[in-house]
Protein backbone atom coordinates (compact mmCIF):
# COMPACT_ATOMS: atom_id res chain seq x y z
CA UNK A 1 0.00 0.00 0.00
CA UNK A 2 1.24 3.51 -0.83
CA UNK A 3 1.60 6.37 1.74
CA UNK A 4 -0.62 8.56 -0.48
CA UNK A 5 -3.47 6.20 0.28
CA UNK A 6 -2.80 6.54 4.06
CA UNK A 7 -2.88 10.38 4.11
CA UNK A 8 -6.62 10.93 4.69
CA UNK A 9 -7.10 8.14 7.26
CA UNK A 10 -4.14 9.43 9.31
CA UNK A 11 -5.42 13.01 9.22
CA UNK A 12 -8.90 11.86 10.32
CA UNK A 13 -7.42 9.87 13.17
CA UNK A 14 -5.26 12.79 14.22
CA UNK A 15 -8.30 15.14 14.30
CA UNK A 16 -10.18 12.70 16.48
CA UNK A 17 -7.27 12.41 18.87
CA UNK A 18 -7.40 16.22 19.53
CA UNK A 19 -10.45 15.71 21.66
CA UNK A 20 -8.69 13.48 24.17
CA UNK A 21 -4.95 14.25 23.95
CA UNK A 22 -2.78 17.32 24.35
CA UNK A 23 -2.99 20.03 21.67
CA UNK A 24 0.80 20.37 21.27
CA UNK A 25 1.30 16.73 20.49
CA UNK A 26 -1.36 16.80 17.78
CA UNK A 27 0.18 19.89 16.21
CA UNK A 28 3.62 18.25 16.10
CA UNK A 29 2.15 15.24 14.40
CA UNK A 30 0.41 17.39 11.79
CA UNK A 31 3.62 19.29 11.09
CA UNK A 32 5.51 16.07 10.62
CA UNK A 33 2.91 14.79 8.18
CA UNK A 34 2.94 18.14 6.35
CA UNK A 35 6.69 17.94 5.85
CA UNK A 36 6.27 14.67 3.99
CA UNK A 37 4.49 16.51 1.16
CA UNK A 38 2.43 13.55 0.26
CA UNK A 39 0.78 14.01 -3.15
CA UNK A 40 -0.35 12.11 -6.21
CA UNK A 41 2.63 13.26 -8.29
CA UNK A 42 5.47 12.18 -5.93
CA UNK A 43 4.08 9.25 -4.02
CA UNK A 44 6.66 7.20 -2.14
CA UNK A 45 6.44 3.46 -2.45
CA UNK A 46 6.69 1.48 0.74
CA UNK A 47 5.60 -1.90 -0.61
CA UNK A 48 8.14 -4.74 -0.68
CA UNK A 49 10.17 -5.79 -3.80
CA UNK A 50 11.38 -9.27 -4.65
CA UNK A 51 14.78 -9.55 -6.22
CA UNK A 52 16.23 -12.50 -8.22
CA UNK A 53 17.98 -14.97 -5.94
CA UNK A 54 19.79 -16.74 -8.78
CA UNK A 55 22.29 -14.95 -10.95
CA UNK A 56 21.26 -14.84 -14.59
CA UNK A 57 23.36 -16.73 -17.14
CA UNK A 58 25.08 -14.89 -19.96
CA UNK A 59 24.43 -15.50 -23.67
CA UNK A 60 25.82 -18.75 -25.16
CA UNK A 61 28.85 -18.11 -27.31
CA UNK A 62 29.91 -20.50 -30.09
CA UNK A 63 33.43 -21.59 -29.63
CA UNK A 64 36.09 -20.97 -32.21
CA UNK A 65 35.87 -23.27 -35.24
CA UNK A 66 39.46 -24.33 -34.78
CA UNK A 67 38.48 -26.07 -31.55
CA UNK A 68 35.53 -28.04 -32.99
CA UNK A 69 36.71 -31.65 -33.50
CA UNK A 70 36.52 -32.86 -37.10
CA UNK A 71 37.05 -36.51 -36.21
CA UNK A 72 39.65 -37.03 -38.92
CA UNK A 73 42.18 -39.81 -39.17
CA UNK A 74 42.17 -43.58 -39.43
CA UNK A 75 38.95 -45.40 -38.60
CA UNK A 76 40.29 -48.87 -39.35
CA UNK A 77 43.77 -50.12 -38.59
CA UNK A 78 45.83 -52.50 -40.70
CA UNK A 79 44.61 -56.10 -41.04
CA UNK A 80 41.19 -55.13 -39.61
CA UNK A 81 38.13 -56.62 -41.26
CA UNK A 82 35.79 -54.28 -43.16
CA UNK A 83 32.67 -54.73 -45.22
CA UNK A 84 31.54 -52.88 -48.31
CA UNK A 85 30.96 -49.21 -47.55
CA UNK A 86 32.97 -49.01 -44.32
CA UNK A 87 34.98 -45.80 -43.88
CA UNK A 88 38.69 -46.53 -43.49
CA UNK A 89 40.29 -43.08 -43.38
CA UNK A 90 38.97 -39.50 -43.18
CA UNK A 91 41.25 -36.70 -44.29
CA UNK A 92 41.49 -33.21 -45.68
CA UNK A 93 43.36 -33.52 -48.90
CA UNK A 94 44.96 -36.61 -50.37
CA UNK A 95 47.28 -37.76 -47.62
CA UNK A 96 46.34 -41.34 -48.51
CA UNK A 97 45.08 -42.56 -51.89
CA UNK A 98 42.55 -45.25 -52.69
CA UNK A 99 44.20 -48.50 -53.70
CA UNK A 100 42.98 -52.05 -54.31
CA UNK A 101 39.22 -52.46 -53.73
CA UNK A 102 38.90 -48.96 -52.25
CA UNK A 103 37.25 -45.74 -53.36
CA UNK A 104 37.60 -42.05 -52.51
CA UNK A 105 34.69 -39.68 -51.85
CA UNK A 106 34.47 -36.02 -52.77
CA UNK A 107 35.70 -35.05 -49.27
CA UNK A 108 38.74 -37.37 -49.75
CA UNK A 109 37.25 -40.05 -47.48
CA UNK A 110 38.56 -43.51 -48.34
CA UNK A 111 36.01 -46.33 -48.07
CA UNK A 112 35.94 -50.04 -48.87
CA UNK A 113 34.45 -51.36 -52.10
CA UNK A 114 34.56 -55.00 -51.03
CA UNK A 115 34.65 -57.09 -47.86
CA UNK A 116 38.14 -57.99 -46.70
CA UNK A 117 41.16 -56.87 -44.69
CA UNK A 118 42.70 -53.39 -44.69
CA UNK A 119 46.27 -52.92 -45.95
CA UNK A 120 48.37 -49.74 -45.84
CA UNK A 121 51.10 -49.85 -48.48
CA UNK A 122 53.18 -48.04 -51.08
CA UNK A 123 53.39 -48.82 -54.78
CA UNK A 124 56.57 -47.40 -56.39
CA UNK A 125 55.57 -48.77 -59.78
CA UNK A 126 52.35 -46.78 -59.63
CA UNK A 127 53.75 -43.62 -58.01
CA UNK A 128 57.11 -43.08 -56.27
CA UNK A 129 55.82 -41.05 -53.28
CA UNK A 130 52.14 -41.78 -52.80
CA UNK A 131 50.82 -44.04 -50.06
CA UNK A 132 47.77 -46.18 -50.61
CA UNK A 133 45.06 -47.99 -48.65
CA UNK A 134 43.71 -51.24 -50.05
CA UNK A 135 41.52 -54.19 -49.15
CA UNK A 136 42.51 -57.83 -49.74
CA UNK A 137 40.39 -60.96 -49.49
CA UNK A 138 43.03 -63.07 -47.77
CA UNK A 139 44.61 -61.72 -44.61
CA UNK A 140 48.01 -63.16 -45.55
CA UNK A 141 48.15 -61.29 -48.86
CA UNK A 142 50.43 -58.29 -49.25
CA UNK A 143 49.98 -55.24 -51.44
CA UNK A 144 50.88 -54.32 -54.08
CA UNK A 145 50.32 -57.45 -56.10
CA UNK A 146 53.10 -58.55 -58.49
CA UNK A 147 53.01 -56.87 -61.90
CA UNK A 148 50.96 -58.63 -64.59
CA UNK A 149 49.29 -60.77 -61.92
CA UNK A 150 45.67 -61.80 -62.22
CA UNK A 151 43.36 -59.32 -60.49
CA UNK A 152 41.33 -60.74 -57.64
CA UNK A 153 37.62 -60.00 -57.56
CA UNK A 154 34.89 -61.45 -55.39
CA UNK A 155 31.86 -62.17 -57.53
CA UNK A 156 29.82 -63.98 -54.82
CA UNK A 157 29.59 -67.05 -57.03
CA UNK A 158 30.41 -70.67 -56.40
CA UNK A 159 32.39 -72.80 -58.79
CA UNK A 160 30.27 -75.57 -60.24
CA UNK A 161 31.15 -77.98 -63.04
CA UNK A 162 29.37 -77.29 -66.32
CA UNK A 163 28.38 -80.52 -68.04
CA UNK A 164 29.20 -80.70 -71.74
CA UNK A 165 26.20 -80.33 -74.06
CA UNK A 166 24.72 -83.61 -75.15
CA UNK A 167 24.67 -84.11 -78.94
CA UNK A 168 21.15 -84.05 -80.32
CA UNK A 169 20.29 -87.05 -82.52
CA UNK A 170 19.41 -86.31 -86.11
CA UNK A 171 16.37 -88.61 -85.97
CA UNK A 172 13.79 -88.95 -83.24
CA UNK A 173 12.60 -92.22 -81.75
CA UNK A 174 9.81 -92.37 -84.35
CA UNK A 175 12.29 -92.04 -87.22
CA UNK A 176 11.54 -88.47 -88.35
CA UNK A 177 14.11 -85.63 -88.36
CA UNK A 178 14.39 -83.63 -85.14
CA UNK A 179 14.78 -80.34 -87.00
CA UNK A 180 14.08 -78.90 -90.44
CA UNK A 181 15.78 -75.82 -91.91
CA UNK A 182 13.49 -73.65 -94.00
CA UNK A 183 15.31 -71.44 -96.48
CA UNK A 184 14.18 -68.02 -97.62
CA UNK A 185 12.62 -67.23 -100.99
CA UNK A 186 14.48 -66.27 -104.14
CA UNK A 187 17.46 -67.54 -106.07
CA UNK A 188 19.86 -66.25 -103.41
CA UNK A 189 18.06 -66.46 -100.05
CA UNK A 190 19.43 -64.27 -97.31
CA UNK A 191 20.90 -66.08 -94.27
CA UNK A 192 18.67 -64.10 -91.91
CA UNK A 193 15.62 -65.64 -93.58
CA UNK A 194 16.61 -69.16 -92.52
CA UNK A 195 14.21 -70.60 -89.98
CA UNK A 196 15.05 -73.70 -87.95
CA UNK A 197 11.92 -75.69 -87.13
CA UNK A 198 12.38 -78.21 -84.31
CA UNK A 199 10.27 -81.22 -83.54
CA UNK A 200 7.98 -80.64 -80.59
CA UNK A 201 8.37 -82.92 -77.60
CA UNK A 202 4.67 -83.14 -76.70
CA UNK A 203 4.13 -86.08 -79.05
CA UNK A 204 2.21 -84.10 -81.67
CA UNK A 205 4.79 -84.83 -84.44
CA UNK A 206 4.70 -81.14 -85.41
CA UNK A 207 7.52 -78.70 -86.06
CA UNK A 208 7.67 -75.31 -84.35
CA UNK A 209 10.19 -72.52 -84.14
CA UNK A 210 11.89 -71.69 -80.87
CA UNK A 211 10.36 -68.88 -78.86
CA UNK A 212 13.56 -66.84 -78.58
CA UNK A 213 14.01 -67.05 -82.35
CA UNK A 214 10.54 -65.66 -82.99
CA UNK A 215 11.51 -62.46 -81.18
CA UNK A 216 14.45 -61.90 -83.50
CA UNK A 217 12.17 -61.91 -86.55
CA UNK A 218 10.69 -58.59 -85.48
CA UNK A 219 12.96 -55.79 -86.67
CA UNK A 220 12.96 -52.89 -84.28
CA UNK A 221 14.93 -49.73 -84.93
CA UNK A 222 15.49 -47.15 -82.22
CA UNK A 223 15.55 -43.62 -83.52
CA UNK A 224 18.37 -41.60 -82.10
CA UNK A 225 16.84 -38.56 -80.45
CA UNK A 226 18.81 -35.49 -81.40
CA UNK A 227 19.73 -33.95 -84.70
CA UNK A 228 17.14 -33.82 -87.47
CA UNK A 229 19.97 -34.08 -89.97
CA UNK A 230 21.07 -37.41 -88.50
CA UNK A 231 17.49 -38.70 -88.62
CA UNK A 232 17.15 -37.75 -92.29
CA UNK A 233 20.48 -39.41 -93.09
CA UNK A 234 19.28 -42.65 -91.46
CA UNK A 235 16.01 -42.37 -93.35
CA UNK A 236 17.80 -41.97 -96.70
CA UNK A 237 20.07 -44.89 -95.92
CA UNK A 238 17.12 -47.07 -94.98
CA UNK A 239 15.24 -46.06 -98.13
CA UNK A 240 18.32 -46.83 -100.25
CA UNK A 241 18.64 -50.26 -98.64
CA UNK A 242 14.96 -51.01 -99.24
CA UNK A 243 15.31 -49.88 -102.86
CA UNK A 244 18.30 -52.14 -103.42
CA UNK A 245 16.47 -55.06 -101.88
CA UNK A 246 13.40 -54.47 -104.08
CA UNK A 247 15.64 -54.17 -107.15
CA UNK A 248 17.34 -57.47 -106.28
CA UNK A 249 13.96 -59.15 -105.89
CA UNK A 250 12.79 -57.72 -109.21
CA UNK A 251 15.95 -58.90 -111.00
CA UNK A 252 15.59 -62.29 -109.37
CA UNK A 253 12.00 -62.53 -110.58
CA UNK A 254 12.99 -61.57 -114.12
CA UNK A 255 15.84 -64.10 -114.08
CA UNK A 256 13.50 -66.86 -112.89
CA UNK A 257 11.03 -66.02 -115.64
CA UNK A 258 13.81 -66.08 -118.21
CA UNK A 259 15.05 -69.43 -116.93
CA UNK A 260 11.54 -70.86 -117.08
CA UNK A 261 11.06 -69.57 -120.64
CA UNK A 262 14.45 -70.94 -121.74
CA UNK A 263 13.64 -74.29 -120.20
CA UNK A 264 10.28 -74.32 -121.98
CA UNK A 265 11.88 -73.50 -125.33
CA UNK A 266 14.60 -76.13 -124.80
CA UNK A 267 11.98 -78.76 -124.00
CA UNK A 268 9.96 -77.82 -127.08
CA UNK A 269 13.06 -77.93 -129.28
CA UNK A 270 13.98 -81.31 -127.85
CA UNK A 271 10.52 -82.67 -128.64
CA UNK A 272 10.76 -81.31 -132.18
CA UNK A 273 14.09 -83.00 -132.64
CA UNK A 274 12.78 -86.33 -131.35
CA UNK A 275 9.70 -86.04 -133.54
CA UNK A 276 11.75 -85.38 -136.69
CA UNK A 277 14.10 -88.23 -135.89
CA UNK A 278 11.18 -90.59 -135.39
CA UNK A 279 9.50 -89.51 -138.64
CA UNK A 280 12.74 -89.82 -140.55
CA UNK A 281 13.20 -93.34 -139.24
CA UNK A 282 9.63 -94.32 -140.20
CA UNK A 283 9.95 -92.85 -143.73
CA UNK A 284 13.23 -94.54 -144.47
CA UNK A 285 12.24 -98.04 -143.38
CA UNK A 286 8.51 -98.44 -144.27
CA UNK A 287 6.82 -98.86 -147.72
CA UNK A 288 5.04 -95.98 -149.30
CA UNK A 289 7.09 -93.45 -147.61
CA UNK A 290 6.38 -90.54 -149.79
CA UNK A 291 6.84 -86.92 -149.20
CA UNK A 292 4.20 -86.73 -146.47
CA UNK A 293 3.88 -83.43 -144.68
CA UNK A 294 5.24 -83.37 -141.17
CA UNK A 295 2.82 -81.94 -138.66
CA UNK A 296 4.44 -80.57 -135.54
CA UNK A 297 3.07 -81.80 -132.22
CA UNK A 298 0.91 -79.54 -130.15
CA UNK A 299 2.60 -78.09 -127.12
CA UNK A 300 1.30 -79.58 -123.93
CA UNK A 301 1.03 -78.09 -120.49
CA UNK A 302 4.08 -80.06 -119.40
CA UNK A 303 6.22 -78.27 -121.95
Describe the structure.
- Helices cover 30% and strands 14% of the residues.
- With 303 residues, it is of the alpha+beta class.
- Among the domains are: 33 residues; 66 residues, OB fold (Dihydrolipoamide Acetyltransferase, E2P) (Beta Barrel), CATH 2.40.50; 38 residues, no CATH class.
- The strands form three sheets. The protein has a four-stranded antiparallel β-sheet, with no helix packed on it. The protein has a four-stranded mixed β-sheet with strand order 2-7-8-4, with no helix packed on it.
- Helix 1 runs antiparallel to helix 2.
- The N and C termini lie far apart (145 Å).
List keywords for this structure.
11 strands; 303 residues; alpha+beta; elongated; OB fold (Dihydrolipoamide Acetyltransferase, E2P); four-stranded antiparallel β-sheet
Layout of secondary structure:
Blueprint (H helix, E strand, L loop, with lengths): L2 H15 L5 H13 L37 E2 L6 E2 L4 E4 L6 E2 L3 E3 L5 E3 L3 E7 L8 E6 L42 E4 L12 E5 L7 E3 L1 H6 L11 H58 L18
Parallel strand pairs: 4-8
Antiparallel strand pairs: 1-3, 2-7, 3-6, 5-6, 7-8, 9-10, 10-11
The largest sheet has its strands arranged as 1-3-6-5
Estimate percent helicity.
Answer: 25-40%
- Quickly name the level 1 CATH class of the domain at 71-136: Mainly Beta
Q: Would you list the SSEs in sequence order as H and E?
A: HHEEEEEEEEEEEHH
Output mean pLDDT.
Answer: 82
In DSSP terms (H or I, runs of 4 or more residues), the helix count works out at 4
CATH architecture of the domain at 71-136: Beta Barrel
CATH topology of the domain at 71-136: OB fold (Dihydrolipoamide Acetyltransferase, E2P)
Form type: elongated
For the secondary structure, the number of strands is 11
Q: Could you say which structural class the secondary elements and strand pairing correspond to?
A: alpha+beta
Intertermini distance: 145 Å
Quaternary arrangement of the chains shown?
single chain
CATH homologous superfamily of the domain at 71-136, by name?
RNA polymerase II/Efflux pump adaptor protein, barrel-sandwich hybrid domain
Q: What share of residues are in beta strands?
A: 5-15%
The gyration radius over C-alpha positions equals 58 Å
The biggest beta sheet reads: 4 strands, antiparallel
Return residue spans where pLDDT drops below 50 for at least 5 consecutive residues: none
Amino acid sequence: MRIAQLQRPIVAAASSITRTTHTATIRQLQEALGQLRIGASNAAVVEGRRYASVKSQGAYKIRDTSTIPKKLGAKKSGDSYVITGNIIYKQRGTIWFAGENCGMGRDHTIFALASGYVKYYRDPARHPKRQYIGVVFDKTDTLPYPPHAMRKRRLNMLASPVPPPQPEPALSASGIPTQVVRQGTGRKPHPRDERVMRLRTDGSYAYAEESWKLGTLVRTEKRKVGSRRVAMRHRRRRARAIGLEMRAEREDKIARRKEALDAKRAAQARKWKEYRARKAAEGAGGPGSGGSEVTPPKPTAEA
